[in-house]
Every structure is written in C-alpha cells, then in structure tokens.
Fold this protein.
Amino acid sequence: MEKLPIGISDFKQVKEEGYYYVDKSLFIKEVLDNVKIILLTRPRRFGKTINLSLLRYFFEKANTDTSYLFKDLKIWKEGGPYTRHQGQYPVIFLTFKGVKEDNWEKTYEWFRNIIAEEFKDHSYLLKNNFLTGDEKTLFKKIINRNASELEYKNSLRTLSAFLYRYHQQRVVILIDEYDTPVNASYLNGFYEQTTPFMRSLFEGAYKDNEYLEKGVITGILRVAKEGFFSGLNNLKAYSVLSHPFADKFGFTEAEVIQMLEDYGVKEALPTIQAWYNGYVVGNQAVIYNPWSILNYVDTREDGLRPHWVNTSDNALIQELIVDDEFKNRKRLLELIDGQGFVMRPSETMIFPGLRGDETAVWTLLLYGGYLNAINRRRDDNDEFFYLRYDDTQ
C-alpha cells in the first residue's frame, strides 16, 4: 500500500518516493489554456503548494530530463500541444507561507532570505562571465542579504531578465501563499510597511515584464486596492465561487471514493460524506478538503476527527468578530445553529476597511473554508449566494 503524502507538498518527492498521488496534472493544461497571469484562492490545506510544485517541475528547464514524473499522468495523454512545454522554461518559485512575524524587521528579513535562496538556486548565472561586473555584484549582494530595499523590490524583474538572457526563453514566475504576510502585518499593526514592499515586488515580477511567460499566484484571499495587481490587465482571479479550476484543488467525490477503495475502506463513504461534507466550488462541484481525507485514511482506526479545523489560523477572523464594531453576532449564532443566509460576497478584501465591515467577516469565513456557498442566484448584474456553516468539518 502506498504511503500517504501527509504534510508533503513537493511534487517530485511524492512521485519519486512512491506516495499516493491523486492526479491533478490537468491543472497544467488549464493553466496553459488560460491568460498570462492567474490568481487562485483556496482555503488552507487545499493543495495549493503541491499544485505550484507540480507546475514548477513540469515547466522548469532542468539539467536532467524530468518528463518521467509526468508520463503516467493525465497531462501526458493530452499530447504535443501540452507536453511540448515540459522542461522548457526557467522558473522562479517563491512561497510566503511561513511569513507570519509580528514586526516589519523580521518580515523584511524573511523576504530577503526567500529572495536570496531563489537567487542561489540560479547561481550558475555567475559562471563564465555571463553577467557583467556590476550585475555580478548585485547578484552577490542579494544572495548575501546586504542589497538595498530597492534592489530587493526589483529583484524578481532583475532575475527574470538574467534568466531570459541566459536561456533565451521567457520565465515562469510562481508565488505561493502571497497573502500570508499581508494578514500577519495587518494583525500586528505594520500593514503600511509590508504592502509597499510587496506591491513593488509584484509589479516587478508581473507588470509589463517582457521576460514573463506565465505567472501563477496562490493565496486565500484576493487583496484589493493596495495595488498588488493594479495595471495587470491580463490577470484573472479564480476563487471557490468560480467554475474554472474547480476540480483542480481538493478532492472530488470520485477521487475520494477511489482512495477509499484503494485503502479498503469504501464502506466508510457515507460517514465521510456526513462528517467531512465537502465544499461546493464553482458550479456545484462537491470538493473535499484533502487534509481531512488524507488524515482520516491514515488514522482510520481512531475514527473521525476534525483534522482541518485544528490546523487553521483564524486569528484575523477572531479579531474581527470580537471587535466592538461587529454588530451581527445574532447571525453568527444562527449560522452555528445550522441556519444560512443569502448575501453577495466581496470579490476582494480591503484590509484598512475590514473593521466594521460585516460583509468582510462573512467573506473571510467563506474564502477561509468555514462557510459553504450552497446555491447562487442572479439579480440584475449582481450574484448572490446562500451561505451555510457545516460544523462537522
């Protein structure tokens, strides 16, 4: 029986070490068929990091052939229009999932370290006098963590230019959990220091970057108005309310049934359906949280447990609910009691205006995975959803 990849988010490790893998490789096809820059938001523990890792190993131009990782997957059956992209691009990959500090100085140190490590991964650029003297100096300053703030802000544009010149191929830039530092800085009172840095970093990576082939960004929320994505006319954002990519994160019911069959516990399906319930994503697709399902199968002798909720970081939601400006605690109690309500969630989050914004609380609960959007209806140009809390998950 294959091992379960609990806590493992590196696609290559999952494949090479024989872990159980639910084939999400058609995510690659949907990315290739979509616009140049994509923002994908999902709750925590929903497979965002391993999917970006999947993209990285598929696109990345490596010293050795990595096609063996994909030849038994669905993407390979799509043929030449897609397989021709395998191993063809330099890739920049950053994850901000660990950036949860309580002050700007520590957060900035995280950014410097993450960027430095990515430059170090491409240190072959320092060989054979490929870079000019000034370019080498800048490259080494970034690796040694002593570049200026402006140089770090421009670092992704700088690195993509160097990579394009070396490989004669445009660059894929992947950023995982982009909003984690934003949440932490808002909660700890240094939001106004974090956002200008990140805005410049993102503009350098994605805005009018002639060296960019494709950009994919993941997070939980779509941050608005701070300008992270201002001017990116070719960006599309997809959330749990969107049909595109609906089955590419989390497990479909068919995938859950197959896993239960593979591990000899198919009879547990009705109980799992009642306990872990599944999210409605996009146009009524029922998607299960992979963290809950993997942990249940792994520890099935111990029975059903609330695996996902015990891992979630809900400090922002807690702060907004206990804030004096939050007035509708009655609705919150009604949700806990099993009642639902109809609303139009915000597409984006405006952090400076969160306190006192009741819609923001329900939107956070929805995008964070605590509420389920059961039904939708259109009214003129607006779209409304019936939201419900499912306490078993």
User: Anything to note?
Assistant: The first strand starts at residue 37 and ends at 41. Residues 314-389 form one domain. The two ends are 27 Å apart (CA to CA).
